[in-house]
Amino acid sequence: MTMNLVHRLFCRSDRWAHTVEQKLLPWALRGVELGDNRLEIGPGYGANLRVLVDKTPALTALEIDQALADRLIREYGHRARIIHGDGTDIRFGDAEFSSVVCFTMLHHVPTPPLQDRLFAEAFRVLRPGGAFAGSDGVPSLAFRLAHIADTYNPVSPETLPDRLRRIGFTDVRVDVAGGEQRWSAVKPSRWTP
After folding, report:
1. What mean pLDDT do residues 24-37 have?
2. Residue 140 pLDDT
3. What's the domain range around 26?
4. CB-CB contact of 99 with 32 (8 Å)
5. Hey, which of 83, 107, 137, 184 would disulfide with 133, CB 3.0 to 4.6 Å?
6. What CATH code is carried by the domain that includes residue 66?
7. What pLDDT is recorded for position 171?
């Protein structure tokens, strides 16, 4: 995964943190039950983590970039479990989390098969009845231009529901507004591997 300098500066800015807290997370998580033990995949610079850490008894964040994981440990390690790891190969047991979330990061997963593997891993580590929710940009010229020299593999909101259902999720919902998409999906309550 690569991010250009402008993108990195924006993602760690106060402006982005404010947008996340005031707009993105309230919209993305409206109506989603997250439970008591959440996993965030791909927290990056931590704008989402900063909000989530105060809203749950237990929060784990899984970050693929070692330097960012180290930074998050310094900032939030006393309030959340920060792990350097890969969302396509989550090193936790089956059914460990009440919810799994990821925000504005799926387009940095380099291929659709790896994105599907991330969805499958989110499904595996969810408890039966648990929610998988998040948000990302929608494919557009403006979104593409913001990602010049980045890993850029946007997820189509038209295909996302079927991709999640193929993994096993039910109650899949995808909404699009203002160049963003949000989704929520549920691992069936009667799921047995």
Report:
1. 95
2. 73
3. 5-186
4. yes
5. 184
6. 3.40.50.150
7. 97
What is the 3-class SS of the chain, one letter each residue?
CCCCHHHHHHHCCHHHHHHHHHHHHHHHCCCCCCCCEEEEECCCCCHHHHHHCCCCCEEEEEECCHHHHHHHHHHHCCCCEEEECCCCCCCCCCCCEEEEEEECCHHHCCCHHHHHHHHHHHHHHEEEEEEEEEEEECCCHHHHHCCCCCCCCCCCCCCHHHHHHHHCCEEEEEEEECCEEEEEEECCCCCCC
183 versus 8: which is more confidently predicted? Answer: 183
Structure tokens at 120: 């499958």
Domain-embedded: residue 89? yes
User: Per the structure, how many domains does the chain have?
Assistant: 1
Asked whether residue 191 is domain-assigned, the answer is no
Considering only CA atoms, give the Rg of the chain: 15
In a domain, 193, yes or no: no
**pTM above the 0.85 mark?**
yes
